[in-house]
Specification:
Helix content is 39%, strand content 19%. The relative contact order is 0.13. The chain is an alpha/beta fold. It has two domains: 181 residues, Beta-carbonic Anhydrase, Chain A, CATH 3.40.1050; 119 residues, 60s Ribosomal Protein L30, Chain: A. It is built from nine helices and eleven strands. Strand 4 and strand 5 form a beta hairpin. The protein is globular.
Length: 360
């Protein structure tokens, strides 16, 4: 994303954002992309689910060179999840249910992220304490085992680090063993199957075979990054708060604070996100002319399912706007609200007519 976008007037930033969504949908729905997904599923039937932080740097499909639409993401501030949260548990169970009904297995990648070069480029959600972030992912792993079974024959929870400087995966196996893709090279590719079997001996063979392309893709991605010059200095310049699901198209660093609709206390992450936006304006990192609250809910069928998605999107936008008006009265007049639903088949973002929450 051009750096200048952060400094444009809010109306231009919003126009740029929806143009990005349209371009993503066009690429996703192209015949070439559709055929690539079908071919990939035929060769690698294991479903891949990823639980991760909202940070736009953690783009697993790009980092593993996996076709768009293969990996199902669950994103939240800090990558903080608790499977006891009612909506999260139901959403995750429904996703796994669809996988199992089609005779497939599910690999659930539970991720934390960090920076080798500077801890301040790590996860702000855990106050840059990587040990805490890692410990939380292992807690999620235990919850997944409690929900879907300790044998891991159908759903396998895999803890993965993501080192953002080189966009490298770090796999955690038994007895504290790890496998970092950044420590390997193309010469190590033939040994990957044996290394995986040693690291994850309890993972079903089919899953290991379907995990392998992600690791091979990550090796190639790391090698390509090492040939380019990249600025790793991360300055928080978020200018939008996203509430809901279906933000796969929004994988850009320091643009958005994404809040999944999972926690029973949505007000807390909204409050934290608004505080970050206010701080960005006060520090001059973004213009103080406005910020965006964007809601999104996916739907699969027209009719009742889409109507439900519309009602939910409007509710979440109204809820977020009310929290900000109540707790950040000086910030609220600069708020613009947009409500959308997402067509899951085409990944098209569909703006809804202005509702009550959209009043500025």
């Amino acid at each position: 994303m051009p750096t200048s976008v952060h400094h444009r007037p809010i109306a231009e930033r919003i126009d740029w954002l929806f143009d990005l969504a349209r371009r993503h949908a066009g690429e996703y729905a192209s015949p070439e992309a559709w055929l690539a997904r079908q071919r990939y599923h035929a060769s690698h039937p294991t479903a891949i689910l990823v639980m991760k932080c909202m940070d736009g740097r953690i783009n697993i499909p790009v980092a593993t060179r996996t076709p768009k639409g293969i990996i199902l993401p669950f994103r939240n501030l800090g990558g903080i999840f608790h499977l006891g949260w009612p909506h999260l548990g139901e959403t995750l169970t429904a996703a796994v249910g669809k996988v199992v009904a089609s005779g497939r297995q599910a690999l659930m990648m539970i991720t934390y992220h960090y920076s080798r070069g500077d801890e301040r480029r790590g996860c702000a959600g855990f106050h840059y304490r990587t040990d805490d972030a890692r410990a939380h992912t292992f807690g999620i792993r235990e919850e997944v085992s409690a929900l879907f079974g300790q044998g891991h024959g159908t759903v396998y929870p895999l803890v993965c680090g993501f080192e953002t400087d080189e966009e490298a995966l770090v796999l955690h196996g038994r007895d504290g063993q790890t496998l970092s893709m950044a420590d390997l090279s193309e010469a190590d590719r033939p040994e990957l199957p044996a290394r995986l079997q040693q690291l994850l001996p309890d993972m079903p063979a089919r899953m290991r075979a379907d995990l392998l392309p992600l690791l091979e893709g990550n090796l190639a991605h790391i090698a390509a990054l090492r040939q380019t010059e990249r600025s790793l200095d991360i300055e928080h310049r978020e200018w939008m708060i996203c509430v809901g699901r279906g933000f796969d198209w929004l994988h850009l660093p320091n643009v958005a604070l994404i809040i999944g609709p999972y926690s029973p206390d949505l007000a807390d992450p909204i409050r934290k996100a608004a505080g970050i936006i206010e701080g960005n304006m006060a520090a001059g990192r973004i213009p103080d002319d406005g910020f965006l609250v964007l809601s999104s809910v996916p739907y699969e069928d027209i009719g009742v399912d889409r109507a439900r998605a519309e009602l939910k999107s409007r509710f979440m936008a109204r809820f977020a706007a009310d929290v900000i008006r109540r707790e950040f009265p000086a910030l609220a007049p600069r708020m613009t609200v947009r409500e959308t639903v997402l067509n899951w088949d085409s990944r098209s973002v569909e703006p809804l007519p202005a509702g009550v929450a959209a009043d500025r």
